[in-house]
Amino acid sequence: MSLALTIPIPEPFTDASLGELPAVPVRRTIEQIISPRIFSCQPETSVVEAARLMREAACGSLLVIEDTRAVGIWTETDALRLNFADPATFELSVRDVMSWPVKTIPVDTTFNDAAVLFKRHGVRHYLVVDDQGGYRGILSQSDIVLNQGAEFFLKLKHLDTILDPERRPLMTSADTPLHEAISLMREQHVEALLVCYPDSDYGILTQRDVVRLLAEKTSHLPVGAVASHPIISVPKQTSLYYARKLLAEKHIRHLGVLDRGELAGVISFSDILTSIEHEYVNELQYALKERDEALQISRQNLRMADKVFESTLEGIMITDANGVIETVNPAFSRITGYRKSEVVGRNARILSSGKQPPEFYRHLWISLRENGFWQGELWNRCKNGTLFHEYLTITGIKDETGHYSHFAGIFTDITQRKIAEERLHFLANHDPLTGLPNRTLFMERLLLATQRAQREGSKIGLMFIDLDRFKYINDTMGHAAGDKLLTEIAERLKSTLRECDTVARLGGDEFTVILENISDVQHVAKIAKKLVSKLNGIVKIEQQEVFVTASIGIAIFPEDGEAPETLLMNADTAMYRAKERGKNNFQFFTSDMNTSTMERMRLENSLHAALSRSELLLHYQPKLKLDTGELFGYEALIRWNHPQMGMVSPAQFIPIAEDSSLIVPIGDWVLHTACAQARRWLDRGDLLGRMAVNISHRQLKLANLVDSVHSALQHSGLPAECLELEITESMAMDTTQETLDTLVRLREMGVHLTIDDFGTGYSSLSYLRKLPIDGLKIDRSFVAGVVQEPGDAAITRAIISLAASLGLAVTAEGIEEASQLAFLREQGCPFGQGYFYCRPMDVARLDDWLAARRRELAAH
Ligand SMILES: Nc1nc2c(ncn2[C@@H]2O[C@H](COP(=O)(O)O[C@H]3[C@@H](O)[C@H](n4cnc5c(=O)[nH]c(N)nc54)O[C@@H]3COP(=O)(O)O)[C@@H](O)[C@H]2O)c(=O)[nH]1
């Protein structure tokens, strides 16, 4: 049975009631917890008086002041040292029993440091002083411990965890004389003594009771008469938190601890404090250890950062908040050429290149001030004035107040990378030969130009330029010469046009020009005229002179198309029209050009069926000896009798047949038909010379012409010598080794080879000598002018004489007038044909013509 006054355990603590975990406060100072009131007495104050003062102030110590100077301190523990058996004790003054010197501690000492000092000096009180030596208050160890946020710990721990079962409380019987009980406490260094009453009840005598008894000068009574009785007790499961609360509420220092109703021990306020202290010291040690480790890591980091700063290849510059340089690393000096001493203290704008507008820097600073970060590329200037391209990252560094106090700029010199990138970009978008934009860049620019023009309501002129006869030049003079010619053309184009105009090379000999902001289409015509004239003329390549002309097609945005592709296609179509119209000129796109494209497609479709539907036929035009008028052969000329369109000119459908591969079966058919007819006329005695058949470019290149000719001769039975093949001058100039071989084999078969339209194709005479040919046909354009045009007469004369000197048969075509015939006869031209004698006719009409002619001859 317990005779102690039992206090029930309060509500149990749940996890939720534990509240937030306390942080370990390592930076707080003791100034925040000391009480500014200092209780003091003088050295001469009697101990009895001092005890009364202490009781009134309810404090545990008095500062002993002499002449405003603290000469000692008198505490409850000091009171215990008095001998209560001696009546003279009550006459003692504080000076006789105080502790001195007084230990002081500066007011700005941190909690941590104060806790360490308490442990190190083994004291329970410090006098707190400021830096002038003024007294600011008394700090007890309890103040530190109670302000360490120990609630969490107190709530978790129960009394039985701090009750040492081995350490029995110091106990004495109630009849023990008071001075003996006090001596016992002093000797055993305890704060309290358990007093045992005869009925197994317990009371308690504490240091504070001793101070009270001193103040009352009580010494002769037995301890049972003055002890606090009964002792207030709580079960051992009570938390320290509640125990501490109870001690504070009851203004007591000790509690009995009950185990199953029996007094198992006594715990004091200082036991709780010691427990907290213990825990706190553990935490403190842990915090100190962590701090030391952090310090160690931070020192190591600093060393590493220092090493990185010194050895990194990236330039680093640290500035203050206004951009004034505070330090730079060696890489900075290597990149910029500035030594550290030359830039520290100067503004970072010392590096400014002037290539970025003020707006750029304004945005940079806004970003730095708002986000503490900026990243990007910019041009800066080295000490020697050269520019360098850098990739820069700037990061703001904040001070304790949260403001950016410094900026760290880290940059890499990317000049070389930029040059390489630009080179790559250039190569991807430009023609390596001429340096002009290529198709990709051209299409991009055209798209942008159309978008701009759309927005601004302006016009664009798009020119498609194609060199005339480039292939011939390339093939005859070689690719290197062709390249030189293209480079020269590119230069001429650039020098004729404005900087802002785009000149591009799409490939081969195709160039394009974009003219923006066109106010008047006539202006485009003027430029086109200028270009035609600039490109027309002689270009000197490797000691040789090449005569060049160009054809230009023009499309206007938005009239001739809004999409870049349509515009380009229409400019291309217009360029073809310029070629058709004799080359060396320019043509604007017109919608009928597209119509003719449609027509062309329609013709191509029906041409496929023309052969099988027997819509093709041959007309023949006789060739004559000019001096005697004797018939010397025929030229077979194809006709297409279209069911709806009537007679379609070969000039119209042969190019279409050439573009598709229809020319091969058609050409084959012409050869077979002409040879068969020639054989018939030969058998009848109406073929003295040869049957001439026109061979197209594609036929010569693609088809197995030799086989076709051989087959036509075999089928018809016509001797090879009676067959003449006409190839145009441009074809003759465009021969490759393969086509040359074909011509040689035909010649070896006995077939005659003639160059048609001679004089129009700028033949190289030396080249002419190498060709296996038998004759030349003077183009009818020269024949037409022989009477009126001295130039045409001169050319005709020259061709006749050239043919004679090379041993070639020469035929004049397109003789329409007697005067022309007379001229040709006079010049010794042996053969001719033309409307003057007879138009091309079908077999029936030609047979009539032959019969009539025979009759006429017979009549003479
Ligand atoms: N590959 C092939 N080409 C052929 C074939 N048949 C003809 N052609 C080529 O078509 C072009 C046009 O020919 P065509 O309309 O038949 O004109 C020829 C004659 O009619 C015309 N000619 C003849 N004499 C005169 C004249 O006195 N005046 C005048 N204005 N024209 C005349 O000349 C054309 C013949 O020219 P050419 O071939 O250069 O001797 C034409 O280029 C034909 O070559 C074919 O089967 N295959």
From TrEMBL:
The lineage of its organism: Bacteria, Pseudomonadati, Pseudomonadota, Betaproteobacteria, Neisseriales. It holds the Pfam family GGDEF. It catalyses: 3',3'-c-di-GMP + H2O = 5'-phosphoguanylyl(3'->5')guanosine + H(+). Residues 301-347 form the PAS domain. Residues 372-426 form the PAC domain. Residues 458-591 form the GGDEF domain. This is Diguanylate cyclase/phosphodiesterase with PAS/PAC sensor(S). Keywords: CBS domain.
